[in-house]
Amino acid sequence: MKIDNIPIDLILKNMFAATGTVLKIFFLTILFSVPLGFLVALARRSRFKIISLPTRIYQLIFRGTPLMLQLFFFMYGPFYIFGKGFERFTACIVAFVINYAAYFGEIFRGGIAAIPKGQYEAAKVLGYSRLQTFMRIILPQVVKNVIPATGNEFMTLVKDTALAQVISVSEIFDVASKAGSKYFSAIPVMIAALFYLVMNTAVEFAFKLIEKKFDYYKI
């Protein structure tokens, strides 16, 4: 199938193949950055400056500089520092994980801070240990608190995967931009936009279901 002599079927085939890369970046980033972000949140709340201060500096650096620059750093920095660098896809995942962990850490920290201190005191009176209090009472409420912000970050991540092309990791936007340049048309980019829209629609739907599941927690 062609539109204005543009092989749409070939472009779609290439984009579907590139979607696999996008999904790998997305799920690997989530798999590692969410638990790391939780640890970052706990470190930020630490009473010990030797833990909380470096964590704040880390968050400032990775939230305060563009992800694109961080991709370049993890692609080329290790080679100049250690004489050996990451493979391109690995550098991409490392950059995404460390970047998003900084954001998730702040989201989770805010969610924990929003829980009234009276709940900790009430749990102590009821004989709960600190671990039981956190896992059974605090954590479910924290999850409910952070669902909207976390969902927003997930949707941003889908779009940010387009930045992987700056270190030559081929994904949807890379395929679209190359096809657009080759055929002098904006159609491939418009098709790419539909791919991102479909993926983010699925993310939004998933978070609506999660939010509904936690409706019974009234804070």
From TrEMBL:
Q: Which GO terms describe its biological process?
A: amino acid transport
Q: Output the SUPFAM superfamilies linked to this UniProt entry.
A: MetI-like
Q: Which UniProt keywords apply?
A: Amino-acid transport, Cell membrane, Membrane, Transmembrane, Transmembrane helix, Transport
Subcellular location, record wording: Cell membrane
What CDD domains does UniProt report for this protein, alphabetically?
TM_PBP2 (cd06261)
Cite the InterPro entries for this sequence.
Answer: AA_ABC_transptr_permease_3TM (IPR010065), ArtM/GltK/GlnP/TcyL/YhdX-like (IPR043429), MetI-like (IPR000515), MetI-like_sf (IPR035906)
Residue ranges occupied by any ABC transmembrane type-1 domain in the UniProt entry: 19-207
Q: Which family does it belong to?
A: Belongs to the binding-protein-dependent transport system permease family.
Q: Which PANTHER family match?
A: L-CYSTINE TRANSPORT SYSTEM PERMEASE PROTEIN TCYL, MEMBRANE COMPONENT OF AMINO ACID ABC TRANSPORTER
Specify the protein name.
ABC transmembrane type-1 domain-containing protein
**Source organism of the structure:** Herbinix hemicellulosilytica
